[in-house]
From TrEMBL:
Domain Histone deacetylase: 53-297
Classification via Pfam families: Hist_deacetyl (PF00850)
Family: Belongs to the histone deacetylase family.
Species of the source: Ralstonia wenshanensis
Protein name: Histone deacetylase domain-containing protein
Ranges in coiled-coil conformation: none
InterPro entries associated with the record: HDAC_classIV, HDACs, His_deacetylse_dom, His_deacetylse_dom_sf, Ureohydrolase_dom_sf
Length: 335
């Protein structure tokens, strides 16, 4: 499906909430490989091309939220600038107050998108997907683990026990969500699914509830077959009240770190399959962008923008079903 065709189909869209952090910019050294620009480019692109988006600045995740997934020592070390050089190198960013603020906002955006999804069916974080952060350390450009934090935050906010508000994390970034798997390893209330390049970073994998490792050069059909199988397993094992979806752009064939060969059309089919899975089961879904390191940054932005356009169409479909259900329950007064 061409992205332009998706945008045309959204002319009469019910609004979808999107949370952004791109104005919290990391002061990175010249030549740093992290694609900071993609976030502002993405917001500009979807504002122009996806009607019906309701844009919101991401709230700040405070310590009480961060401590749901991270140790006190680590949160204090990050916040106070006490990370040693080895821990900064593992994260991939030099410490700065801006790094702390952006990382808190990125986690806050996934928390806010998760809460909005419960009300609206779907919402998006225009960043997030920081799945390499462990309880006591960061890694791979990830400081705080937004999906793990948001999962436990939403369970707390639900007013129910965690067992009565199960959450599924569907991680389709090309890299395994090692930090997420580690944090949630012994938590039966959150199901972690990771579909990733088997030989790609991280080279020491953690055990998710379901890991599907893919061969280098994997293309659309093999990937989608693996995804269908993974979602079938998830459906058989777990009944989530919320899905957090990491929609990485890095499985794209033009990604310099991905090593897979998915086309733009294949990635649209991937996203649609996840959205259909949620729609058919009436499960709210919060979407994060996760990784994307295209040789051409415009390719990465195009993948992310396509995900948001499809998410917006999902919001429209969800709202239309609500409207139809309300209409079917309306009983006119007798004459």
């Amino acid at each position: 499906m061409r992205p332009s065709a998706i945008f045309v189909a959204l002319r009469f869209l019910i609004h979808m909430r999107a949370f952004y952090t791109d104005h919290f910019v990391l002061p990175l050294p010249p030549g740093h490989r992290f694609p900071m620009r993609k976030y502002s480019d993405l917001r500009a692109r979807v504002l122009a091309d996806v009607p019906g988006l309701s844009m919101h600045e991401a709230p700040r995740a405070e310590d009480d939220a961060l401590l749901l997934a991270h140790t006190t020592e680590y949160v204090e070390a990050v916040s106070a600038g006490l990370l040693d050089l080895a821990r900064q190198r593992e994260i991939g960013f030099p410490w700065s107050p801006e790094m702390v603020e952006r990382s808190r906002r990125s986690a806050g955006a996934t928390m806010a998108a998760s809460a909005a999804a419960l009300a609206d069916g779907i919402a998006v974080n225009l960043a997030g997907g920081t799945h390499h952060a462990y309880a006591d350390k960061g890694g791979g450009f990830c400081v705080f683990n937004d999906a793990a934090i948001a999962s436990r935050w939403m369970q707390r906010q639900s007013g129910r026990s965690a067992a009565d508000f199960p959450v599924a994390i569907i991680d389709l970034d090309v890299h395994q969500g090692n930090g997420t798997a580690s944090i949630l390893r012994d938590d039966a209330t959150v199901f972690t699914l990771s579909l990733h390049g088997e030989k790609n970073y991280p080279f020491r994998k953690e055990a998710s509830d379901l890991d599907i490792g893919l061969h280098d050069g994997c293309g659309d059909e093999d990937y989608l077959q693996a995804l269908t199988g993974a979602l079938d397993i998830l459906a058989g094992r777990f009944k989530p009240q919320l899905i957090i979806y990491l929609a990485g752009a890095d499985p794209h064939e033009g990604d310099r770190l991905g090593r897979l060969k998915l086309t733009l059309q294949g990635l649209a089919r991937r996203d649609q399959e996840v959205f259909d899975f949620a729609y058919q089961r009436r499960i709210p879904i919060a979407v994060t962008m996760a990784g994307g390191y295209g040789n051409n940054i415009d390719d990465t932005v195009a993948v992310h923008a396509q995900t948001i356009a499809l998410a917006a169409r999902h919001a429209q479909r969800w709202a239309a079903r609500d409207e139809a259900a309300a209409a079917s329950n309306f009983l006119p007064l007798s004459a």
